[in-house]
Amino acid sequence: MSFRSMEEFWPFYMNQHSKPATRRWHFAGTLASILCLIYSVCFNWWFLFLVPLFGYGLAWYSHFFVEGNFPASFDHPFLSPLCDLKMFGLMLTGQMDREIKRLGKRPILQVF
User: Fold this and answer.
1) Residue 2 has what pLDDT?
2) Which residues in the chain come in under a pLDDT of 70?
3) φ, ψ for residue 67 (rounded to 5)?
């Protein structure tokens, strides 16, 4: 499945993150990655290797063991991290529930 823009990809991405626990794991992974990035820049460059380990590790765990699907980052390596940051921002500002309601329960094909 190909997408021409982030706006087209966003509903598919949200469908892949339909369970609240999956979104929470992503939030934790993104937050840990951001904190490791800041720490590595300020204090110790060796922590830079933890950035993708936390970010992708926690997110992929949630896809395989919570959501039961295939991570979108495998097929969409550029759009997926952008949408992850968007989801992180919506969760951080308390707007995620409103976004889920806005998107509704659209049927979107599961791609493996």
Assistant:
1) 83
2) 105-112
3) -80, -35
